[in-house]
Amino acid sequence: MSLAPSIPSIKVKVGPVSVAPPHRACRSFAVVRSSKAEGPIRRPAAPPLSPPPKTPALSTPPTLSQPPKPAAPPTSSESTPPSPQPKAAVATAPAAALQRPLAGAVTLEYQRKVAKDLQDYFKKKKLDEADQGPFFGFVPKNEISNGRWAMFGFAVGMLTEYATGSDFVQQLKILLSNFGIVDLD
Amino acid sequence: MASTSLATLPSQLASPVRLRRRAALSSASRPHFLLHRATKGGSQCRLAVTCNAQAVAPTSFAQGTPVRPTSILVVGATGTLGRQVVRRALDEGYDVRCLVRPRPAPADFLRDWGATVVNADLSKPETIPATLVGIHAVIDCATGRPEEPIRTVDWEGKVALIQCAKAMGIQKYVFYSIHNCDKHPEVPLMEIKYCTEKFIQDSGLDYIIIRLCGFMQGLIGQYAVPILEEKSVWGTDAPTRIAYMDTQDVARLTFIAMRNEKANKKLMTFAGPRAWTTQEVITLCERLAGQDANVTTVPVAVLRFTRQLTRCFQWTNDVADRLAFSEVLSSDTVFSAPMNETYQLLGVDGNDILSLEKYLQDYFTNILKKLKDLKAQSKQTDIFF
């Protein structure tokens, strides 16, 4: 009954550094140890600012920004810091350009228009985040559920052995006999 | 104990290396990226100006209503600091709008004070933009509740709020951070506060970032009330000193900083006049209350062990994030900062800041007077009013 205690690990999803559409972005996973001495520091990466949506007179749809990246392991932490800063610089220029024709004062009508566009943007972003990932396959949700079921099976097996005295082989024999597959008794 | 002391050394040695490396990378790669993006930004700016000058200008003069500079939005208005910010803003004549999470017990005291309450939730970003219409400045006092993850409200919600503020042309953004949050990357809340500071500075907003050490209001419920009720007082044996500050003073200095042009795009630290340890606060409460306290001391090692235990399970990870402050307690730091430059910048006299002795003395005087008025039965028989 001696079971070696394993170090718990957390699976962290790493976003790509290059700007790509969220539905086509390939995602890789890295196992991060939860121990403070062994694992990397879980640093949340700052997402790029969403550019302000343009007025309907321009007849261009508002460009959506990349979803915020989760915490990155140290292998990609060197490439993470430079990525949000140029995007912030890009977002600043259109905002200044949009505000400049308004004689320097922000108006209620402008804020209402931007608020509606931002609401649509966040709702679409939530729908995109909910739709990504297949139902089957090696996705983190399925792997976590599989691991929990495995732990549950091990616990039930060991508790049954402790309660009834039958070892694993005998439990298999009892199962096969009760189901009527093979008559082993 | 030797293993724990050896374990803390690598984390302390690792954190400045990471900070230095990241600073070097950002400084080295920044001019290249900025030059590369500036050309694209310039081209987009040129196109946007030619299009908007003809379309938007007539509508702005005919239908535009400018946003009043006195309209502010307080996020997290029901908290310890948020309510004092709302109170101070209403006293100074601002039009205050409070972003309150929809909950069974509504925040009626904010409406009784005269503030406007709007329902929104930082964990649902689509509810944020509507609350920012007609707002000139945002004061961000929000934080997550103990029963929910830190990341949901303090990071993802704050990022969405900053994005909305940037897009909707908010003129000023006030953010409250934690003192020394860049020196403790192993604590999740401090790490998130530091990343939010960086995000605000990179976003181009006009900001004021205020780092706080601790509040005096929390000491009432932790130490003063249990001493008066003769219950057990829970404290730690940590040598960490915290310079507590009254939330009313924090709110007063915040609005002075908002009206001061020199405080624009500044990172300030607000600290009280003197730093106190837990044992010193308990001793002060005992002296002012006139009776001894039943002190139960929790060692920091027990907190650290509990944190390691709660990190092993997914459902207790939020507890482990909250218990990460035991790393700060064992690091023997002083949560205080010299305030002379801040007082000179804001034009505030340092003697006007309330000290902890005065604050607790006023509290005990008032509460003992109320007990006398109510003719409360006291177990102690030698009280002389």
List keywords for this structure.
heterodimer, A: 185 residues, mainly alpha, 5 helices, disordered N terminus, B: alpha/beta, Rossmann fold, UDP-galactose 4-epimerase, domain 1, seven-stranded parallel sheet, two-stranded parallel ribbon, photosynthesis (chain B), HCF244-like (chain B), NAD(P)-bd_dom_sf (chain B), NAD(P)-binding Rossmann-fold superfamily protein (chain B)
Structure description:
The complex is a heterodimer of chains A (185) and B (385). Chain A has helices spanning 74-77, 84-99, 108-131, 140-164, 168-178, and strands spanning 9-14, 28-33. Chain A is mainly α. In chain A, strands 1-2 form a two-stranded antiparallel ribbon. The longest helix of chain A is centred in the last third of the chain and has 25 residues, at 140-164. In chain A, 24% of the residues are buried. In chain B, α2 (80-91) links the parallel β1 (71-75) and β2 (95-100). In chain B, the strands form three sheets. A seven-stranded parallel β-sheet of chain B has the order 3-2-1-4-5-6-9, with helices on both faces. Residues 1-62 and 381-385 of chain B have low confidence and may be disordered. Chain B is α/β, with parallel strands linked by helices and 385 residues long. Chain B folds into two domains: 65-212, NAD(P)-binding Rossmann-like Domain (Rossmann fold, 3-Layer(aba) Sandwich); 215-242 and 271-335 and 354-384, UDP-galactose 4-epimerase, domain 1 (Alpha-Beta Complex), CATH 3.90.25. Helices cover 52% and strands 13% of the residues of chain B. Classes of the chains: A mainly alpha (185), B alpha/beta (385). Chains A and B meet through α2 and α3 of A and α1, α4 and α5 of B. Chain B: Residues 71-320 form the NmrA-like domain. Chain B: One of its GO terms (cellular component) is chloroplast.
